[in-house]
Design brief:
heterodimer; A: Aspartate Aminotransferase, domain 2; Aspartate Aminotransferase, domain 1; 2 domains; four-stranded antiparallel β-sheet; 16 helices; 13 strands; B: alpha/beta; Aspartate Aminotransferase, domain 2; seven-stranded mixed β-sheet; globular
Chain lengths: 518, 448
Amino acid sequence: MTDWSQAVSQFRSDAKTTATVSGNRGLQIEEPLLFEQNAPGRTGVDLPEPPAVRSRLGGITREGPIGLPGLAEPQVVRHYTRLSQKNYAIDTGLYPLGSCTMKHNPRLNERLARLAGFADVHPLQPISTVQGALELMDTLAHWLKTLTGMPAVALSPGAGAHGELCGIMCIRAALEARGEKRTRVLVPESAHGTNPATAAACGFAVDSIPATEAGRVDLAALRAKLGPDVAALMLTNPNTCGLFEREIREIADAVHGVGAFFYCDGANFNAIVGRVRPADLGIDAMHINLHKTFSTPHGGGGPGSGPVVLAESLAAFAPIPWVVHGAKGLELVERAQGSARGSIGRLKGNHGQMGMFVRALAFMMSHGSDGLRQVAEDAVLNANYLLARLKDELTPAFPGTCMHEVLFDDHFLKDTGVSTLDFAKAMIDEGYHPMTMYFPLVVHGALLMEPTESESRGSLDAFIAVVRALAKRAKSGDAESFHAAPRFAPRRRLDETLAARKPVLRWQPPRSDRQAAD
Amino acid sequence: MRYLPLTTADRQAMLAAIGVSSIDALFADVPEAARLDGFVDLPRAQGELEVERALGAMAAKNLVAGAVPSFIGAGVYRHHVPASVDHLIQRGEFLTSYTPYQPEVAQGTLQMLFEFQTQIALLTGMEVANASMYDGASACAEAVMMANRVTQRKKAILSGGLHPHYREATRTHARFVGFQAKLAEPDPEAREDLASEIDGATSCVVVQSPGVFGQVRDYSALAEACHKAGALLIVVVNEAVSLGAVRSPGAMGADIVAGEGQSLGNALNFGGPHLGLFATRERYVRQMPGRLVGETLDAEGRRGWVLTLSTREQHIRREKATSNICTNSGLCALAASIHLALLGEAGFTRLAALNHAKAVALADRLAAVPGVSLVNDTFFNEFTLRLPKPAAGVVERLARKKILAGVPASRLYPGKPALKNLLLVAATETTTETDMAAFATALAQVLA
């Protein structure tokens, strides 16, 4: 930790020169918590006085104040506007977070999701009054099925990881229907953490598959692990190293050869949409993160949406509700019986992330079959352009070209005293969100960059110039400036150890106030 | 294509810089048999105007709840959302940012979530709340799995007053995760006594406050019975506004609160996205699912926030994580937090009182319709009516008269003919005198 304390003393001396009376720095304004702006009785919503009625709460009423702060509307608007200004966003700049796919979020999609005919419709209205909503779901399903070549899709999962849960549950149900109890799920070392977490949640033992020198699944090692007790392989393709699994059809054959299912993590479908149909790769189930490939906004951590496309062998197990064509138009199957008797049941409330369905369908229809293919091509082109222009200064993790994201390891930082973390934090000072760091785990000090199709060549060139210059600076022995980074963000490095050691997970009134209240 | 900045000249120059002759070379790893030569069989690109027309036409086929008298609730409630909520959540810095993995450039989202966690802890009467889940039903299933971890037991007892979607989602998880979910019979009159069902294998009892049929109950004694047997009490709240009037789960002795926060700041959205709430006692925090934001200091000693206790989570712990959840409902949490900030203590408690008053007026009015009786002896803003004939047909006929009359119990309990005459009816601050009069009149006509 010597480096750290040196860096801190460096900050402190910097801080003197940049100190202001208010603590604000130009447009970066310090904003207290809502709770620190409280005036009792104040409100930002004018509601009528409730008429006096005989309470029907049965005396089971709240005792004492809740403790919510009182603010007027101007204060609230300013509070959240100031908070927003402390965030990096795809609207403010290139967001090269590999595996996360931060692409432009068209505002048309926001407008359409807010149409009263979608946003102000209750999920439990009579089916006769929601035919347009069901038509939208059915149309989205058609696009997803056509783009993937799969015969069925479960729309309800709430995000990608929820889709994984859905897929693995369907696989287990299918195995049970065959009278089989298999116990293992195979997951490559480079997988997203959600894959092993999902398999374990569904009661499977997780068995790790090593990668080859070329960053792909080791087919021989996979074959050696396959057996009659294997339920499924969970594989991301293109994988998290940004590489297409060349032997994917051999992998699929091997998996099917022992009677297991092939689950694909579709987080990287954006690399191949319109050019490759997962069905043609031998995949049995795949979730699609609508917030990645089809650009529903990520919102600082959701909401997402994770529809799962399913092969014929799994379709009967899809969770309810199902949208089906009936005699009187579109219908919702909300009960696991009749044609849906094989369904795994319900995974969440209601019918799925409708607001995200509207946005995703608008994105698909805007691009069309031609534009979506171009999306994949431009995403792959942009990533390879980064690779080509950075490969002599940084160290690519694997030889050859990449798909939609490019992976570097930290060899280029060897003996510089600069870590991947330091490098990422220096990116912040240059006005960029850092790339994904230390993931995937198969590469030392990983830096994973995904520019997406949304970036212009000019934007990439500017980014490339910064990354190259920083790499040069690191190699020149100027480690100190990296350790001190970031210097120009709303906060400098935050002490995550302190946060975890003594968790403060909510605001509390100052001790003196609490004692006074007692 | 309006969303793609690369020009044909750019693409050519970039391919040259890469050193390949065509884009196809970059897809060379794709097996030959899986390469699509042409476009998939879907329509080609369209302009904004065309897409807006096509989706606008679909939207126009739905009956908009706000355009007619609407009394549908059952876990999803139509409240007035202040204009500034939707304006603020559309600020690009909130809307188009990722999960706050890089705290120095995500303090806006992190501070907001810290405030949200505090607000939810206060409302539920619990010590800590997380940064959100997908929705109430999935949060309920996660709460049961957490109780199983805490108690090292595998049997959950689910109340007959718990929303059927929550029961079904939990039952689905039970089958595949490997625990027992014992479902009590639907309980419109809130007569069940679950304390007698608890045994040494019980990990938790799950109740809903107010119940799906609207009943308000005090679960303090049930909490005691749970604790005596080493089990946890999980209280589900799916009308968050009720927390401004009804005794909080924390005050009743709940160990975990799983809930739905859609009522705060979020639209009906035909069922999603909504906002899963999750709160518990401090001693169980390391068994919680989902993201948590904690306070800390930066290198200059200034207060700031980070994602914390990540060693519970899938991206660190992989197969040993407490849950597989990753993306949650961040923007919905922001909407809820802004709505609560605007309301404040005074506004929130008044909103709750207003909802209750409207529901009382509506219940009295509808119970006076010949043949109709009120099932509930207690309720907050939703109650159950017993009709003289099956409710589904009545609701369908009222829908033709442009009144959304509520949820027939048969929609939620298709396999329970004994409940087919029951109708769940909700009122909120958006319900007007005129709406109530129209409903009462039309109901009397349809039943006559």
